[in-house]
Specification:
Elements: E1 10-11, E2 14-15, E3 22-25, E4 34-37, E5 46-52, E6 58-64, E7 70-74, E8 78-82, E9 87-94, E10 103-107, E11 110-111, E12 121-128, E13 131-138, E14 147-153, E15 159-166, E16 174-178, E17 181-183, E18 187-192
Parallel strand pairs: 8-15, 8-16, 9-18
Antiparallel strand pairs: 1-2, 3-4, 5-6, 7-18, 9-13, 10-11, 10-14, 12-13, 14-15, 16-17
């Protein structure tokens, strides 16, 4: 039962809500009854109560706290690359969801155009139930490729890095590309979201 509105969400193995995110799990030959909430949202926060129809009645309350998804950038937020080298940015979205998260890349306020006349821009994406990894590759970097790059997932807060394409300068942290040998400092943008599951055990 959800305490804020006294809504009975489940009884036995049956669900009494039109919100399909709620379900009950009862393993066969078990005394466990688990309330599961998928794709948790801020409005799901609050007190939930498990009740057992015994005499006297047994109940147990659980407080669910839901935090906003936050982006975490590992490594420097400023990426320095040499003109003519390859920019490599990897965005990792560690969200357990079905279907997996989708990711858009922005350069400044514009979506990265993989079919632009510039060419040399590609994306490698791996989607699993445990998360999504999106790798943006920009070859033959030019000064106009400098700027803010933002990874925008469909179900987590975006994160950004600032790319600086340099002409002849050599900062300590730099991505470089020489012939077929590629050396790079990969910037990993990790999105973390709290995936809440309320579980109440009764025996």
């Amino acid at each position: 039962m959800r305490k804020r509105d006294l809504h009975i969400l489940t009884s036995s193995i049956h669900t009494y809500t039109g919100d399909g995110r709620f379900s009950v799990i009862h393993p066969e030959h078990s005394d466990d009854w688990d309330l599961r909430i998928e794709y948790v949202q801020k409005r799901d926060a609050g007190v939930y109560e498990c009740q057992v129809n015994t005499e006297p009645k047994i109940n147990m309350a659980v407080m669910l706290n839901v935090e906003d998804a936050q982006a975490s950038i590992w490594g420097s937020q400023d990426v320095y690359v040499k003109k003519g080298s390859t920019i490599s940015l990897t965005c990792s979205v560690n969200v357990h969801s079905t279907p997996p998260s989708s990711v858009l890349w922005y350069h400044g306020s514009s979506v990265v155009d993989f079919d632009s006349q510039r060419g040399g821009i590609s994306l490698e994406t791996e989607k699993t139930e445990s998360g999504t990894t999106s790798k943006l590759l920009i070859t033959k970097a030019s000064l106009t490729d400098s700027g803010n790059y933002t990874c925008v997932p469909s179900n987590a807060t975006p994160a950004s890095v600032s790319v600086h394409v340099l002409n002849g300068e050599h900062p300590a942290a730099m991505q470089t590309s020489k012939g077929n040998h590629y050396e790079a400092t990969t910037i990993t943008v990790t999105m973390m979201i709290i995936y809440g599951i309320v579980t109440v055990f009764t025996r």
